[in-house]
Specification:
single chain, about 400 residues, Receptor-associated Protein, 3 domains, three-stranded antiparallel beta sheet, two-stranded antiparallel ribbon, about 75% helix
Length: about 400
């Protein structure tokens, strides 16, 4: 989705700004070109004349709409920006290269809007804060810390690593949950097709047998009759339930808290989700603390970055205790959501003065645990799903062929 251009007030009215491509000649007569964000062509002309440029052409840039900006797009942008700045490429030129070369027009527009803000004197940190939909407080705080300390390249690199690892662990969790859900969904659709169209065809054949049908066949035919008569209610109720469930999950805080608690208690999957949450929590705190952000302030961003309301509430309690002088280790133990391994590593980090390093090692450990757990789940789920499908579809087939076998034995 394209990012809307910011507006600036003029005499109480809001003036929408656009990006204009311009061409002109400088004081030496040399042809120069560039882009400028302004509220209209007249403002572009006035601004450039003040800079000693004789404008010959001004054209408003029109961006074609692109696909939605994803976390993957933002992660790639962060990595590209970090790499180019580390290589000594000037900031504005880095934005030009990344923005004009991106395959997604929505990302290109966002990056060039950021560039236009920076060109007018806005700091990089404040430019990012204008787009909270794409750049969260953690991202902006780290960029601001890098600008103030003069280590922007290093912190952009840390941000890129953090976003890459977070994206990778989210992808693993999604793959672990999506595969069985997709297979079971397909199995339901196939079963519905068999019940609505295939079984009634057998029913008309069995009607001419003139003999009693086996119990499994009668059960399947009864289910088929129910499907044929009420298929619209079955599918309608399923789709309506899913729609209202996801809408309430998205909009209701109580629903989100309840679902996050349930997810952590799920058999098999709950352990993987908990490990992934702890990995994100420790990775975020390690990145913030290494950037020089004070611990109490760093905890502001950590809870939300964990992606789970249980850990968000726990982080708020930890932050309150730490702000009153309690050590991080004791506060984490009191929260009762972290395994002893995590609290022991944090205690060692606090005592040795290497808290960021220890938190990073904890994140690495739990990320490896998630990798192994997802691999094990994938190996386990494939044969298990095949057994479920075999019993379901095979049972239906056998139930429908039992009368034929019985007829053959009689003959």
């Amino acid at each position: 989705m394209a990012t809307s251009l910011p507006t600036r007030s003029r005499g109480g009215a809001q003036v929408k700004e656009s990006v204009y491509a311009w061409e002109g000649k400088d004081k030496t007569g040399k042809t120069v070109r560039g882009e400028l964000r302004a509220g209209g062509e007249a403002i572009v002309n006035v601004t450039l004349r003040r800079q000693g440029i004789m404008v010959t052409k001004v054209k408003k840039k029109i961006y074609r709409s692109g696909r939605k900006i994803t976390d993957k797009d933002l992660t790639m942008f962060t990595r590209q920006l970090a790499t180019m700045m580390k290589a000594g490429v000037p900031l504005l030129q880095s934005f030009d290269i990344v923005g004009k070369g991106h395959a997604n027009p929505s990302v290109s527009k966002l990056i060039l809007d950021l560039r236009a803000d920076i060109e007018t004197g806005t700091s990089l940190n404040n430019a990012f804060r204008k787009y909270p939909r794409y750049f969260d407080p953690l991202f902006c705080n780290l960029v601001g810390a890098g600008e103030q300390a003069g280590i922007l390249e290093e912190l952009l690199h840390r941000l890129a690593v953090y976003k890459e690892k977070t994206l990778a662990i989210k992808a693993k969790i999604k793959s672990a949950l999506t595969y069985p859900i997709a297979i079971l969904g397909v199995a339901f659709i196939v079963t519905a097709i068999i019940m609505i169209w295939v079984v009634p065809a057998f029913k008309s054949v069995f009607a001419s047998f003139g003999a009693d049908l086996p119990t499994p066949t009668l059960v399947v035919m009864g289910i088929s009759e129910f499907f044929v008569q009420w298929w619209w209610a079955i599918f309608g109720s399923i789709f309506a339930s899913l729609y209202f469930f996801f809408q309430s999950w998205r909009r209701s805080l109580k629903m989100q808290q309840a679902m996050d608690r349930i997810l952590l208690r799920l058999p098999i999957f709950g352990s993987v989700i908990r490990k992934a949450t702890i990995a994100r929590w420790t990775r975020t705190l390690s990145t913030m603390f290494a950037a020089g952000v004070p611990l109490v302030e760093a905890l502001d961003s950590v809870g939300g970055a964990s992606g789970n309301n249980v850990y968000l509430e726990a982080t708020k309690r930890i932050q309150t205790e730490v702000s009153t002088g309690t050590s991080l280790t004791v506060a984490m133990q009191n929260a009762n959501v972290f395994p002893s391994l995590v609290t022991q590593m944090v205690a060692i980090g606090e005592e040795s003065g290497a808290l960021d390093s220890m938190l990073g090692k904890v994140a690495d450990f739990f990320e490896e645990e998630v990798d192994e757990a997802v691999s094990a789940l994938s190996s386990l789920m494939e044969p298990l799903i095949m057994v479920i499908l075999g019993v379901l579809i095979g049972g239906l087939v056998i139930a429908m062929y039992l009368p034929i076998f019985k007829l053959g034995s009689v003959v």
